[in-house]
Specification:
The complex is a heterodimer of chains A (247) and B (227).
Chain A: H1 2-20, E1 25-31, H2 35-48, E2 53-59, H3 61-69, E3 76-78, H4 82-90, E4 100-105, E5 107-111, E6 128-131, H5 137-149, H6 152-155, E7 159-162, H7 165-173, E8 179-183, H8 184-187, E9 194-198, E10 207-213, H9 221-231, H10 233-241
Parallel strand pairs in A: 1-2, 1-3, 6-7, 6-8
Antiparallel strand pairs in A: 3-10, 4-10, 5-8, 5-9
Helix pairs in contact in A: 3-4
Chain B: H1 6-39, H2 45-57, H3 60-71, H4 78-83, H5 92-116, H6 120-128, H7 133-144, H8 146-162, H9 165-170, H10 181-189, H11 197-225
Helix pairs in contact in B: 1-5, 1-8, 2-5, 5-8, 6-7, 8-11, 10-11
The chains are: A alpha/beta (247), B mainly alpha (227).
Chain lengths: 247, 227
């Protein structure tokens, strides 16, 4: 299994290398939930610095970490949780001195208006979607919040586990579940589902997006410049526009 | 190699349940469709063939999404069932339906190959001796389709064991309820701490598939040897 996936990843890299080896590009490996905001940030950076080209790879934090480990070209790595950044640090995939925080997110409960207004209302609902707690950080946080609120036993039979946050949101959007635990930034993209309440922040650890230059990225001057730009005020303004918490 | 946990055993049990149910449920319909395509002449046969084979080439995610549209709370079939107090999505029934749809073309294909090898003279002889079409079907075609039936069901069974894309959309990934082997492996593999746990379950999956495919090959040979 591992061997096969390595071969596939290598093939993928070969294709990527063949198209990118000539120009000095900035390769981004970014958690999928940041797609919209990173697209805007890279566009505005490319406008100011002509000649810079971005190759953007969005995916689950774990998949991205594995790709970089297998040699996928990547200069900047941004994950949706600390665990995968620690994994990358332990495997010496990133330049440790560059590791910092990009932004923060908030956990909310989204669904059809009027279904619930607080954590305690959840016990009255029939079905609630969360990400699989073992593999989706948002699901793990939701479970922690249930435990702290003392309602985990009552909710046990009502939970539907989805493969990622966007699938949770899709279920809520289509009305297949009464509501779903998703990030505020995802919920803001929904059309039917509305944010019903924000999960009190003392119930779960802070949702942090760490970022770092990879070992290769530390040597790429353009990548380092973009990395500094991501820490700057312009990035912060745009992040808050999309619903992220910058501090 | 880590020993299997209790949710792993659940996943194995659920996988077997889903595969057996999907295969058994599809057999009568699969047999009827294969009979229609092989022996009956009618207009628009090609449309039926394309429809039957569609799930073979469609991405399973698409099948899953269509099933969600159909069987969901607000889907046109799902809303009727919902009023009758019957929920399909996020239950094992949804996983069975997903596997049945995705595996159906494989079943029909094997059945057809089996039926095409039946000597037409046997069928003609039974008809000239006065048998009605259903007599011929039950006493000539059905018994001679045995190897095709087993080959087809084993192939479909194996495909159902591996069903992932459609299942994870309509059934979710709920441990002990809808989490089959592939879904459990997916969950393990996408977490930094439990990656190694996936290996034992991968091995189980390989062993079951190898056994089932052995049966399938043996049956396919039997069919081939007859002509």
């Amino acid at each position: 299994m591992k061997c096969l996936s390595k071969i596939i990843i290598h093939l993928f890299c070969l294709v990527a290398l063949a198209t990118s080896a000539l120009a000095d590009n900035i390769n981004l490996s970014v958690a999928a939930s940041l797609k919209e905001v990173i697209n805007e940030l890279s566009d505005s950076f490319a406008k100011k610095n002509s000649g810079v080209k971005f190759l953007k790879n969005y995916g689950a934090s774990g998949a991205l970490a594995k790709q970089i480990e297998s040699g996928a070209p990547s200069d900047i790595f941004i994950t949706a949780n600390l665990e995968w950044m620690d994994y990358a640090k332990n495997k010496k995939l990133v330049d440790t001195s560059s590791v910092g925080t990009f932004t923060y997110n908030t956990l909310v409960f989204a669904g059809a208006p009027g279904k619930a207004a607080s954590m305690q209302d959840l016990v009255k609902l029939d079905t609630i979607a969360i990400g699989s707690p073992k593999s989706v950080p948002a699901g793990e946080y939701a479970m922690e919040a249930f435990k702290k609120a003392g309602i985990d036993k009552q909710l046990e039979k009502k939970l539907v586990y989805a493969k990622d946050v966007r699938e949770c949101l899709m279920y809520a959007e289509r009305g297949e579940v009464d509501g779903a635990f998703v990030y505020k930034t995802d919920a803001l993209l929904a059309k039917q589902a509305k944010i019903l309440f924000t999960v009190p922040k003392e119930l779960y650890p802070r949702v942090t997006y760490p970022m770092a230059l990879t070992v290769a990225g530390a040597k790429n001057r353009d990548a380092a410049a973009f990395f500094t730009y991501l820490h700057g005020d312009e990035a912060k303004t745009l992040l808050s526009k999309f619903g992220f918490a910058v501090r | 190699m880590t020993p299997l946990s209790s949710t792993d055993y659940d996943a194995i049990r659920l996988s077997l349940q889903v595969s057996v149910a999907a295969t058994l449920l599809s057999l009568p319909l699969g047999f009827a469709v294969a009979y229609l395509i092989t022996f009956v002449r009618f207009r628009g046969k090609i449309v039926l063939e394309v429809l039957v084979n569609l799930p073979l080439t469609l991405p399973p995610v698409v099948v899953g999404y269509f099933l969600l549209l159909l069987l969901g709370k607000h889907g046109w079939l799902g809303s009727l069932l919902n009023e009758a107090g019957f929920r399909i999505i996020f239950t094992l029934k949804a996983a069975v339906i997903a596997s049945a749809v995705v595996g159906f073309p494989l079943l029909v294909r094997s059945l057809r190959i089996g039926m095409e090898t039946i000597d037409p003279q046997l069928i003609n002889a039974s008809r000239t001796l006065g048998a009605r079409w259903y007599d011929t079907l039950l006493t000539v075609i059905l018994p001679l389709s045995g190897p095709g039936l087993i080959a087809g069901s084993s192939l479909m069974f194996a495909r159902s064991l591996g069903e992932f894309g459609a299942t994870i959309i309509v059934a979710g990934n709920i441990p002990g309820v809808t989490q089959t082997i592939p879904l459990a492996i997916y969950e393990y593999a996408s977490s930094p701490t439990s990656e190694k746990m996936a290996l034992s379950l991968c091995l189980v999956s390989v062993v079951i598939s190898v056994i089932v495919l052995f049966v399938h090959e043996l049956m396919a040979r039997k069919t081939a040897r007859r002509d």
